[in-house]
Amino acid sequence: MPKKNTRMIRINEEIARVTADIIRFEMADPRIGTVVSVMGAKTTQDLKFCKISVSILDGDADETMKALSNAASFVRKRIADTLNLRNTPEIIFIQDDSIAHAIRMNKLIDEVNKNE
């Protein structure tokens, strides 16, 4: 079993935190809904690429993903300004449906409990 790389864990957590702040406070694209959560970041060992998982709970998910993909270079620049990394990774946004799935499952469970 490979040992955990605490440096990469810290980098991923910081990139996720900074990206969430950028999306929440600095991006003014109307295609991005008000409830967009950054679920996590996964950076390659060589810091060339970073996949950022986002969960979209309101608005059009396809339009939001297009807006985030278009803003990837802006997000990368802001991450470079905020974090002191030798290489700032190229940002790739990936949609994560885990929160929406959990909400849907809770509604189904509530319906079953009401019927009993």
Description:
This protein has 116 residues and is of the alpha+beta class. The chain has one domain (6-115): K homology (KH) domain (GMP Synthetase, Chain A, domain 3), CATH 3.30.300.20. The chain has helices spanning 6-26, 61-70, 72-82, 98-115; strands spanning 36-43, 49-56, 90-95. Helix 1 crosses helix 3 (72-82). The longest helix has 21 residues, at 6-26. The protein is globular, with a radius of gyration of 17 Å.
Instruction: Look at the structure and give the CATH class.
Output: Alpha Beta
Assigned CATH architecture: 2-Layer Sandwich
Helix content: 40-55%
Q: Give the number of domains.
A: 1
Mean pLDDT across residues: 91
Rounded radius of gyration (Å): 17 Å
How far is it from the N-terminal to the C-terminal residue, by CA? 46 Å
What does the overall shape look like? Answer: globular
Number of helices: 4
Q: State the secondary-structure class.
A: alpha+beta
Please tally the β strands and state the result: 3
From the 3D structure, determine the CATH topology. GMP Synthetase, Chain A, domain 3
State which percent range the strand residues make up: 15-25%
N-to-C SSE string, H for helix and E for strand: HEEHHEH
Annotated CATH homologous superfamily: K homology (KH) domain
Largest sheet: 3 strands, mixed
Q: Segments where pLDDT lies below 50 for 5+ residues?
A: none
Strands of the widest sheet, in order across it, are 1-2-3
Defining key terms:
alpha+beta, GMP Synthetase, Chain A, domain 3, 3-stranded mixed beta sheet, 52% helix, 116 residues
